[in-house]
Amino acid sequence: MKKPLLIGALILALDIITKIWIRNSLSLYEAITITPFFNIVHVQNKGAAFGMFAAFGSAFFVIVSIVAIAAMLWYMIKVEEQRTLIAALMAGAIGNLIDRIYQGYVTDFLDFHAGSLHWPAFNVADIALTVGVSLIVITGFLHDRGSQANDVPA
């Protein structure tokens, strides 16, 4: 259990440090061009992914986050499988929860684009959430396919 918690703590620390750096270094909407397709930009996200459901308000997202974190913690304690992925998910959820509690919004700053088409800005916590969920789905799919192959009569 120590390794997953250490990984989760490192992800959470990186998320917090990068968000503080962005808030202290860039004005709102200020951008630094890194490459022709990537900027560092300071934006505030009051909604969920891509700013969706912002009208629900910060309190809604705080409650949903707390429930999700509690469920992940329960799962991590009860089930030994995928603890590292769950720890990454928890780190992402906690990182964005901290922002919502203290700022009322989530600080996003990674901006990928192709010309004038921009993917919505995101942060380290969002990466942990996306990668964690994706790997859980993929490993679950592969596990199901493997068990189905073993169930086929010879």
Molecular structure report:
The protein is 61% helix and 16% strand. The chain is an alpha+beta fold. It has a domain at 1-29 and 82-147. The radius of gyration is 18 Å and the shape is globular. The model has no long low-confidence stretch (mean pLDDT 90).
Short description:
The protein is an alpha+beta fold and 154 residues long.
Order of helices and strands: HEEHHEEH
Q: Give the low-pLDDT segments.
A: none
The 3D shape can be described as: globular
Count of DSSP-assigned helices: 4
* Mean of all residue-level pLDDT scores: 90
Largest sheet report: 4 strands, antiparallel
What proportion strand?
A: 15-25%
The secondary-structure class comes to: alpha+beta
* End-to-end C-alpha gap: 39 Å
Helix content: 55-70%
List keywords for this structure.
single chain, 154 residues, alpha+beta, 4 helices, globular
Task: Outline the secondary-structure elements.
Elements (H helix, E strand, L loop, with lengths): L1 H24 L5 E5 L2 E8 L12 H21 L4 H21 L2 E9 L2 E2 L5 H28 L3
Antiparallel strand pairs: 1-2, 2-3, 3-4
Helix pairs in contact: 1-3, 2-3, 3-4
